[in-house]
Amino acid sequence: MNDINEIMHDLEHSPKILENLIHSIPTELLKRKRIPGKWSIHEHACHIVAAQPMLIDRFRLFLDEEEPVIEPYIPGKTFPDDNLMNLDLISELNRFSTLRAELLDVIHTFEKEQWTRKAKHIEYIEYTPYIMLRHILMHDHFHMYRIEELWLTRNEFMP
């Protein structure tokens, strides 16, 4: 848990990293579905943003409740993933910066002892604000990796 400041620093920069990545990709590739039934670059980017309000709410639960119960994210049910393609990508990238700043504002209010507060989450053996913080960073980078993979990987090497 000695890396909280480093993780927060990296989370602060995710919106700019995503924006620069998206702007480096030719526009005609953004909505292309390279793998049937899987997301496009556009959908991966919009999903990162769409998840932010849920994540902010989870951190607030940790602040407000001694042992919060976290509802799992269920693709297509928690929020409509099938609508991601209809979102305006540039607006979503701008919204990401605002939402991430809000997330970081909430996180900065955590006291040292609150980072280990346990929640009940049916998907995970253990779930704390610290685990969630790290999870968000990995989530950002997982989807950014998928974006780069969809952009740059030759067809014969696609999964």
Can you walk through the features of this model?
By secondary structure, the protein is mostly helical. It has one domain: Up-down Bundle (Four Helix Bundle (Hemerythrin (Met), subunit A)). Helix content is 54%, strand content 3%. It has five helices and two strands; from the N terminus they run αααβαβα. The protein has helices spanning 4-23, 41-50, 52-64, 89-107, 129-152, and strands at residues 69-70, 120-121. It has a two-stranded parallel sheet with strand order 1-2. Strand 1 (69-70), helix 4 and strand 2 (120-121) form a beta-alpha-beta unit. Helix 2 (41-50) runs antiparallel to helix 5 and helix 3 (52-64) packs parallel to helix 4. The longest helix is centred in the last third of the chain and has 24 residues, at 129-152. The termini are far apart. 23% of the residues are buried.
Structural descriptors:
159 residues; 5 helices; 3% strand
Helix content: 40-55%
Q: In total, how many domains does the architecture comprise?
A: 1
Question: SSE order, as H and E?
Answer: HHHEHEH
SSE class? mainly alpha
Largest sheet, if any? 2 strands, parallel
What's the total count of β strands?
2
Task: Going across the biggest sheet, name each strand in turn.
Answer: 1-2
Relative strand content: under 5%
Question: Can you identify the CATH class?
Answer: Mainly Alpha
Q: Assign the CATH architecture.
A: Up-down Bundle
- Give the helix tally: 5
Residue stretches low in confidence (pLDDT < 50, at least 5 long) are none
What global shape is seen?
Answer: globular
Any idea what the CATH superfamily is called? dinb family like domain
**End-to-end separation:** 35 Å
